[in-house]
């Protein structure tokens, strides 16, 4: 598979947090973490002039899905920080990138190697469909940052997901209903993968909620197979004159639906993709992707050039990614890696000149109430983001037209904000939380 993003929107569900444990065991296993020079190491991977971290991603195997892109975003951010002197006199070194080969057993083995043999201070950039290492990393207290695809991230206060660590499927219906109303649409088809809870659960929740807001769902299928044939479902959509497809599929299968919709005379219907945000796919398929809207959880890349004064954080991201990892600038998973690295560095800076330990870093981040990765994402409140996903829920939207992607004026906030926020009970926008980029 090519390096295209296949992850979906972070659907939120409340799970309890586990108690952090095992920090003493980890410290005992890291006796060779002493730094050179006169400064003694305060934690594994911490040296006089460097901090060693690792990453864990599916870079090969059956379900790579572009997960390895997360490492490119992490690396670019660290290169940028190191070029400006690092943090508190230390450069951040991405010492080892573990490949779990899309295998749950290997995932845990790789994490053990990073912690027990490589003695990394943190794991920054986890990109995998099978994060079986979550329990192990929670038990060791290793600060861990990555891409949330399941609720295993909500198990401990040292596991930090890109947009928070809790998934709740029930929060997106009001947002989709608002989109439908803005487009003048009154009926929707909802499609997700069978056997993939993150897809079927999300779309099932959407289908249940939309009628509450006046959007009928005459076509619903949460049993679609990866790489399957969309014709039968699209034929139903044409028969029922459906105006909007809500896709909980990956970018490749959403594109198959878009092409089938063209063939069945649904070229005027809209599609809302919750993953697959890709300039290259749109440019290569200009006709099929007309009327495709991408729902995002961050400031869209296009804002960096269209409104640089309003979104300086995206200007910085584009500039530095184009400098250090230009092949992956416009890939959503690489973007998440950038955010993960920014969260890690924010924690280091919050610790400041105090004794740097893994526990000190975790505690510092968990006091943050409005992390935005420098103006790129809605504020994350880490005093609660491990255990609850509190409203408002903010998204941005961009539309594909004639092979290009741009923000859609009809889907901007009341004051032309690109991030539009909702609670789960109403399809009318609410005031964005303080610090939301663009407000």
Automatic annotation (TrEMBL):
Keywords, alphabetical: Signal
Domain Leucine-binding protein: 50-388
PROSITE patterns in the record: PROKAR_LIPOPROTEIN
A Pfam family recorded for this sequence: Peripla_BP_6
Coiled-coil intervals, chain numbering: none
Cleaved signal peptide residues: 1-33
Superkingdom of origin organism: Bacteria
Keyword Lipid metabolism applies: no
Family: Belongs to the leucine-binding protein family.
Protein name, as recorded: ABC transporter substrate-binding protein
